[in-house]
Design goal:
Number of domains: 2
Helix content: 25-40%
Oligomer: single chain
Number of strands: 22
Distance between the termini: 55 Å
Shape: elongated
Structural class: alpha+beta
Radius of gyration: 22 Å
C-alpha cells in the first residue's frame, strides 16, 4: 500500500509534473463554483497521481475525493472523426506502466470517493467515468466523447450517456470492450457528481442504472427516497433484497431487476417452479417447466441508449473478471432475460435462448459482450418455448 495525504489504501502512485496544474485548478475552481471550499489538496506539494482533494460544501458536509484526472483535448487528428474530444489514460511513463498492474485506489471504509475524470481546462468541461469499469486503469489507452455530448452538457449543465467501448491497443484489449457510462458536467455541478458517484459506487450500479440515477441527479430529483422511485419498489423490499443475497456488491447491482423477474416467472403459465440461485458465478434462477425440463435464467439490465433503429442493447458479460474471463461460455445459462426498464420505464423483460446469442468474435465458444435486443427476442418464457 502507498501513502497519500494520510490515506494508506492507495495501491500505486504515479509521478506527474506541474503540466497537470490547469486540470487541478479547474477542479479546485469547480468546488468553489459548486458553493463549497477546498479544505486540502495534495497537488502540487505531492507531485503524484492520484491526487487527494478535501472539500466542504455550503452546508458544512465534508468530501474526501481521490482523483484520477486525465486531460481532454478537442483537436483535429488525422484519420479520426472531427467531432471527438479525446483523452489518454496516462500518468508518468505510459510505456513502462502499461506493462504493470494499475489498480484503482478505493477506500474500503467508503468514506472517501474515487473519481476517474476526463477534464478539459480549455473548454471548462468535466466528464466522469465509471470507476467500477476502470478498476484496472488501461494506461496508454485513449478514450473519447463527442461534440453531441458536450452540447448536452452546455445546454443543461449536466448530461449522462453511454457508449460502446472501442477495442484498445495492447495486451489488455480483451478486458476493455462492452458498454460504459459517462456523466458530463459544468464545474458548478462537480460536488453533485461527487455525491452521485459515492451513491452509484457504493451500490455497484450497472451502466443502465448509473445513467438512470445520473438523470435524476441532473433533474435535481434526488432525496432520501430516490432508490424507491428508481427501483419501483418500497424501501423495506429493497432492504429485504439486499439482506437475502449472497454478497452485497453483487446483490444490489442486479437484485431489483431479479426481484421483478422472479415475480414475472412465477406468473408464467409454462413454469411449474422458480428457484432463485444465490451463489456467486451462477445463473440467477433455476426454472422447472411444466413440460418437465429444468432451465437456468440469467438476468441483465438493458441500456437506456438504444441503437439508431430503436433496438435495445444489453451487456452480457461478467462484472468482476478481466479479459476472456468476463465472457460467458454458452453453457453458463440456458436463457438470457433482458430487463427493459431503462428503455421503457416499465419492469418488462425480453427473453432469448443462450444458444442463439451472438458469439464473441475472438472466441466463438463464448457469448459476445453486447447483444442486440431485436424482434427475435420473446416477451415470456412461454413464448420462447413456442419457438422449439
Amino acid at each position: 500500500m502507498t501513502g497519500l495525504a494520510g490515506r494508506s489504501y492507495v495501491p500505486k502512485l504515479y509521478r506527474v509534473n506541474t503540466k497537470r496544474q490547469p486540470v487541478i485548478d479547474l477542479l479546485r475552481c469547480a468546488v468553489d463554483e459548486a458553493g463549497g471550499r477546498v479544505v486540502s489538496c495534495s497537488f502540487p506539494e505531492e507531485k503524484v497521481a492520484p491526487m487527494f482533494l478535501g472539500a466542504e460544501d455550503g452546508d458544512g458536509h465534508r468530501y474526501g475525493l481521490l482523483l484520477y484526472p486525465f486531460t481532454t483535448t478537442r483537436r483535429l487528428i488525422r484519420n479520426r472523426p472531427h467531432a471527438e474530444h479525446r483523452f489518454q489514460f496516462r500518468f508518468g511513463d505510459p510505456t513502462h506502466h502499461r506493462l504493470e498492474a494499475n489498480p484503482l485506489g478505493r477506500d474500503p471504509a467508503g468514506v472517501d470517493v474515487t473519481l476517474v475524470l476526463a477534464v478539459d481546462p480549455e473548454r471548462e468541461l468535466i466528464v466522469g467515468l465509471d470507476p467500477t469499469v476502470y478498476a484496472e486503469l488501461p494506461i496508454g489507452i485513449s478514450g473519447y466523447y463527442r461534440d453531441e455530448h458536450e452540447a448536452g452538457v452546455l445546454a443543461h449543465g449536466w448530461s449522462a450517456w453511454a457508449k460502446e467501448k472501442e477495442k484498445p491497443r495492447g495486451d489488455v484489449a480483451g478486458g476493455w470492450d462492452g458498454l460504459e457510462s459517462m456523466v458530463g458536467m459544468k464545474p458548478g455541478r462537480f460536488l453533485d457528481y461527487a455525491r452521485f458517484e459515492a451513491l452509484a459506487t457504493s451500490l455497484g450500479l450497472d451502466t443502465a442504472l448509473r445513467i438512470s440515477l445520473a438523470e435524476r441527479f441532473g433533474a435535481g430529483q434526488v432525496d432520501r427516497h430516490v432508490l424507491e422511485r428508481l427501483f419501483g419498489i418500497d424501501a423495506a423490499t429493497i432492504l429485504d433484497i439486499v439482506e437475502s443475497n449472497f454478497r452485497l456488491g453483487v446483490a444490489v447491482r442486479g437484485s431489483v431487476a431479479e426481484h421483478h423477474l422472479g415475480r414475472l416467472l412465477a406468473s408464467d403459465p409454462s413454469i411449474a417452479a422458480v428457484r432463485p440461485i444465490d451463489a456467486d458465478g451462477q445463473p440467477d434462477f433455476r426454472v422447472t417447466l411444466r413440460a418437465g425440463p429444468v432451465v437456468t435464467v440469467e438476468c441483465k439490465n438493458a441500456l437506456r441508449e438504444t441503437y439508431k433503429d430503436g433496438d435495445a442493447k444489453v451487456e452480457t458479460q461478467k462484472t468482476r473478471d478481466s479479459g476472456a474471463g468476463r465472457k460467458y461460455s454458452f453453457d453458463a445459462f440456458d436463457i438470457l432475460a433482458a430487463c427493459m426498464f431503462s428503455v421503457t420505464g416499465r419492469w418488462t423483460f425480453r427473453f432469448k435462448w443462450a444458444r442463439d446469442l451472438v458469439p464473441w468474435p475472438q472466441d466463438p465458444t463464448r457469448i459476445g459482450p453486447i447483444q442486440r435486443v431485436d424482434s427475435t427476442w420473446q416477451s415470456s418464457i412461454d413464448a420462447l418455448l413456442d419457438e422449439q
